[in-house]
Amino acid sequence: MKKKKHFIPGILPPQGNLGLSWWFAFLQNQLLLHQESSSVRIPYLVRFAELGLPFGDQHYLGQLDGHSCYAVDLPEGTVAPEGMAFEGLRKVYGRLDEDLFWLAARAVQIAEWDRTHRFCGRCGIPLRLRETERAKECPQCGLLLFPRLAPAVIVLVERGHELLMARSRHFAPGVYSVLAGFVEPGETLEEAVEREVLEEVGIRIKDIRYFGSQPWPFPHSLMIGFTATYAGGEIAINDEEIEDAGWFTADNLPGQPGKISIARRLIEWFLAKKGKPSIDP
Ligand SMILES: [Zn+2]
User: Fold this and answer.
1) Most buried of 61, 210, 231, 247, CB within 10 angstroms?
2) Is the full-model pTM beyond 0.85?
3) Residues near 188 by Cβ (< 8 Å), separated by ≥ 6?
């Protein structure tokens, strides 16, 4: 995640002269984009209404190099205008400017949260948006709801010159990755890392160290990356999600997860440490 532009998050849209803004418009989780020969472009307009589409709520996200950014929810059945199309975010990565991509990842989560959190879970009446923070509240009982985030840990486990990789049933053929899983209530991140590796492949680990993090908007996770070293055990797959796991060396890696993922950054880190060049797409 290399960021070149400067983004200042905000809740309250600016008043008065609006200027050109970035509009991240979603039909469910599909982003509306101008289609160009080798790339795609986010609508950049003073008002979203210029596209002539019906639209629901607008959520101000903040300022990108002085230009406002909004998430917009489009009603079901919306048809993309001439020269535009709806695309899932995963397919857009690499074809859209990196900063705008990660803003789209932010926008899709706000739009999805707004669409799926309409009523109070306690009294069932409509929630209202708070003006001063990204939250909704129940006007009757005061229940507060914030955008959903599901923290997930991801860990690269080393054993000498090898790293541990596994293959989920959902992966494309031949692709392996480092292990990941959701954090459970009451766990520290380190406990979640230890439990996931033990549960999924029967391996004990030590020296768990923070590596970095990454928003993962599919649909609303935050990936928190770690490195660790092998402490014992033999690979024994216990998880229905995983169909194979093994130890691999830098010279003998299987297929890789895509460049969008922190998994790939962890693997690149391992390769760099072993003095190997990074892998191509
Ligand atoms: Zn309520």
Assistant:
1) 61
2) yes
3) none
Ion ligand 1 — residues with CB < 5 Å: 120, 122-123, 138, 140-141, 143
Q: Is 34 helix (H, G, I), strand (E, B) or coil?
A: strand
Tokens of 63: 């300022």
pLDDT of res. 277: 78
d(CA 138, ligand 1 centre) in Å: 5
On the question of pLDDT at 138 being above 80, the answer is yes
Supply the DSSP symbol for 196: H
Helices (H) and strands (E) in the chain, counts: 4, 17
pLDDT single digits (tens) 197-214: 999 999 999 999 999 999
Rounded distance, CA 101 to CA 73, Å? Answer: 17
Rounded to the nearest angstrom, the distance between the alpha carbon of 95 and the centre of ligand 1 is 43
Give residue 241's pLDDT.
82
Dist. CA 97 → ligand 1 center (Å): 41
* Rounded distance from Cα 128 to ligand 1 centre (Å): 11
Is the predicted pLDDT of residue 1 greater than 70, yes or no?
no
Question: How far apart (Å, rounded) are the C-alpha atoms in residues 54 and 75?
Answer: 7
